[in-house]
């Protein structure tokens, strides 16, 4: 019998290479925008501008560089803010229409569409970085392909729907954890490699390596990822009619209406409430992650005098334990011991809470690293919430629900950076670690939501070992029709 790799891992591989690219290039892209803004837009000396972000300058030059940095960064921040807004806002609406469309016509076209846009955008960055006279505003052109094809937001939603299609109730939690693990591995490798590759080469080489990672993702998706839905029958039924042709159009108001109706329709046995709480909890955690990530580097440099390499080392340490906690915790606690999704969600939230409390009181590097270790089980939270959602929603509605989940999270996360920045700036002169109290409050809210979910969910065993009738009863209890995931 031939070994079927897609039974165990599939869309996680393109996701891994995608995040290697992101972590290789994101910080350096910001540095390049600052550098180009300095000598092209503001007209400062090119040699002096090249020292911005350099940790190896002497004390005199460092003071001059810091003064120049304060003059350049506000203008560069406007460019990066416009880029972030463009790449975050419009793809949400693409995601909202692509999700319902994929329920009828398949996940792979949506996955390919978003990957092509991201790859073309990455290639444009390489081209613009080669010519050192190009104004940094022109780099926004590279944001257009991912913007119109849905970008990362649409790719996330389609990936989560795909994983739900190809997994069973028994394996779904583990597959969601593999998704988180692949993402974390990409972050780990990209963050470790980025400063060293840049020190040995230059901007365009790093961006070219990142673009190569995107090409690998795209090629793997084209040649090795099969469609997860059987769309042949629906295509045969619709191909002979103009209605069918109209139905295959991506941009339709009806798709958006269907998504809203599906999200809020009554499902009985508190399932609508459980679904909405799980979606809201995921969105809050996405908001937290966006805000915390944006401030964390500033906090470490201000409080502990870290540089970029020290921060990359910490990130590597943190993600190693995150991967171990996510994969090991899911396998042993969820797959082997059959502990419920909501209980593991609460365990992960407690891990988060303790970690952020340590961050508030931290006065040395040891406590910061301890907080990273304690947070290792935090990786259980999102996979368990997504697994819980997939148990409530039938397969033909997954695209709509995950479009709401990912798109809604991306939309509200636009407010995360302003909120965290405001709190950080307000406390920086007294105790800069107090910004972590925002995360503690948000984790507390999600913990309350999780306890409510535990009280409302049907009282059933999660053990699938036993008679077929017991398995059937469990599936019916969760409102999930039985699906043969070995297809």
TrEMBL record:
| Annotated transmembrane regions | 15-35, 110-131, 137-158, 178-198, 204-225, 274-297, 317-334, 343-362, 368-389, 401-422, 434-456
- Provide the protein's localization: Membrane
Chief localisation class: membrane
Query: How does this protein sit in the membrane?
Result: Multi-pass membrane protein
GO cellular component term, pick one: membrane
Pfam families associated with the record: MFS_1
List the keywords (alphabetical). Membrane, Transmembrane, Transmembrane helix
Looking at the record, the residues that make up the Major facilitator superfamily (MFS) profile domain are 31-456
MF terms (GO), sorted A to Z: transmembrane transporter activity
Please state what the protein is called: Major facilitator superfamily (MFS) profile domain-containing protein
Organism whose genome encodes this protein: Diabrotica balteata
């Amino acid at each position: 019998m031939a070994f079927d790799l897609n039974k165990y891992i599939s869309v996680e591989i393109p996701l891994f290479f995608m995040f290697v690219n992101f972590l290789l290039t994101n910080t350096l892209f910001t540095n390049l925008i600052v550098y180009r803004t300095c000598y092209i837009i503001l007209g400062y000396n090119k040699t002096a501008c090249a020292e911005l972000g350099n940790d190896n300058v002497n004390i005199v030059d460092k003071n001059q560089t810091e003064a120049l940095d304060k003059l350049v960064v506000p203008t560069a921040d406007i460019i990066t803010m416009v880029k972030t807004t463009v790449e975050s806002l419009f793809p949400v609406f693409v995601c909202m229409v692509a999700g319902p469309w994929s329920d009828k016509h398949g996940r792979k076209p949506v996955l390919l569409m978003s990957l092509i846009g991201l790859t073309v955008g990455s290639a444009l960055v390489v081209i613009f970085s080669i010519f050192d006279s190009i104004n940094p505003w022109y780099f926004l052109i590279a944001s257009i392909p991912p913007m119109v094809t849905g970008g990362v937001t649409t790719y996330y939603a389609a990936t989560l729907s795909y994983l739900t299609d190809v997994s069973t109730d028994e394996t779904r939690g583990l597959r969601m954890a593999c998704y988180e693990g692949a993402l974390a591995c990409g972050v780990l490798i990209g963050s470790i490699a980025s400063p060293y590759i840049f020190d040995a080469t230059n901007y365009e080489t790093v961006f070219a390596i990142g673009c190569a990672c995107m090409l690998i993702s795209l090629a793997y998706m084209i040649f090795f990822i099969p469609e997860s839905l059987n769309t042949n029958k629906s295509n045969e039924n619709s191909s002979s009619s103009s209605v069918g042709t109209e139905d295959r159009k991506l941009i339709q108001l009806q798709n958006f209406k269907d998504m809203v109706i599906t999200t809020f329709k009554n499902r009985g046995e508190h399932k609508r409430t459980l679904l909405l709480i799980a979606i809201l909890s995921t969105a809050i955690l996405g908001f937290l992650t966006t805000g915390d990530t944006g401030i964390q580097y500033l906090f470490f440099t201000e409080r502990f005098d870290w540089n970029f390499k020290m921060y990359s080392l910490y990130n590597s340490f943190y993600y190693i334990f995150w991967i171990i906690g996510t994969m090991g915790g899911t396998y042993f606690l969820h797959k082997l011991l059959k502990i419920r999704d909501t209980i593991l969600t609460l365990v992960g939230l407690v891990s988060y809470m303790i970690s952020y409390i340590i961050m508030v009181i931290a006065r040395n590097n040891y406590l910061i690293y301890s907080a990273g270790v304690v947070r290792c089980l935090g990786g259980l939270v999102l996979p368990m919430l997504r697994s819980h959602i997939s148990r409530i929603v039938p397969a033909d509605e997954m695209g709509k629900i995950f479009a709401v989940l990912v798109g809604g999270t991306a939309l509200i996360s636009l407010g995360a950076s302003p909120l965290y920045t405001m709190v950080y700036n307000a406390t920086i002169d007294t105790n800069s670690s107090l910004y972590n109290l925002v995360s503690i409050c948000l984790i507390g809210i999600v913990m309350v939501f999780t306890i409510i979910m535990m009280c409302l969910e049907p009282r059933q065993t999660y053990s699938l070992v036993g008679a077929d009738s017991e398995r059937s009863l469990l599936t019916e209890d969760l409102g999930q029709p039985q699906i043969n995931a070995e297809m």
